[in-house]
Amino acid sequence: MRYQTFGRHSGLRVSEYVLGTANFGSAPAAAGLEGSRAIFESFVGAGGTTIDVSNIYQDGEAETVLGDLLGRERDDYVVITKYTGSRSAQVRPGTTGNSRKTMIRSLEESLRRLRTDYVDVFMPHFPDGVTPLPEILAGFEDLIRAGKIRYGGVSNFPAWRVAGAAVRSELSGHRPLVGIQTEYSLAERSAERELLPMAQAHGLGVVLYSPLAGGLLTGKYRHGEQGRLSARAAADGTAGEGGEQRTAVLDAVLAVADEIGTGPVQVALAWLRQRAARAQTSMIPIVGPRTPAHLAGYLDALNVELDAHHYQLLDEVSAIRLGAPHEDVAGALAHGVDGDRSLLDDPLIPVI
């Protein structure tokens, strides 16, 4: 496994996969305690160092299990954890959200479960709709100075809020945000509209969750297997693969896998690694196995390289409409409003 720094504002070295621990726990649908240990040890054995968790995963048990596994080698790993929500049956206003109060309380509880005195990256899991970002940034500053977190980031926030926070932290002289977390895969490329260009422009690392689109890109639902998407479909009354384009994407993934003699998981992750290699900031996917066999498949993808025409096929079938103003600007540039662009070098850093 290879390593890179997390964004341009830190020297924090992260592995090219992040181990997702949402399945770490003893519940029937989770990996089990022994299974969690086997997954963790296989990931570490392959060179993995970076681990993602949250205070709500398995009602907090995921952090407890991870804390047991980190042990005395805790400093060898980069631990990302998140706060905002609660899985309590009786949620009270003072125990959720992103306020400084909730941030500190949640972090203290996470540190106890993780059996450590600090986490490497701390993030609000979702916007709560009320807490101003200056309050979140001030909370990060206090926790960094106290030595309880090393860096701050945000998860699932819209690009305009993250950009504002990035500029505000730079102008105030506070520690800058180092990264974001967002969904991204062949079946969900919405982040290309605003989030990924914003992260590149501001030098933020990007942690990508659901790189297999909730199991869609494995092809398992076509074989009648159950998973996150089947549960969601039953809850909201939908059926199928979520639309014609997602079906076409899966068809293409399966066709490429059949052509080169590998699996759809390896194809989908190889495409994602190629996109990350072309980015102007670090983009690292979270792999969230429920079994050691799942992890083995994800690790196999590290050795898969597709041909140029495969990448082109997958790019085209999964492409999204960027919409306004992106398409209008692209059209204007094509008609020469910026002179002869063939005479210009591509900028190393996107214009902001």
Automatic annotation (TrEMBL):
Gene3D superfamilies: NADP-dependent oxidoreductase domain. InterPro entries: AKR, AKR_Detox_Biosynth, NAD(P)_OxRdtase_dom_sf, NADP_OxRdtase_dom. Residues 18-318 form the NADP-dependent oxidoreductase domain. Keywords: Oxidoreductase. One of its GO terms (cellular component) is cytosol. It comes from the Bacteria. GO terms for molecular function: oxidoreductase activity. This is Oxidoreductase. It comes from Streptomyces brasiliensis.
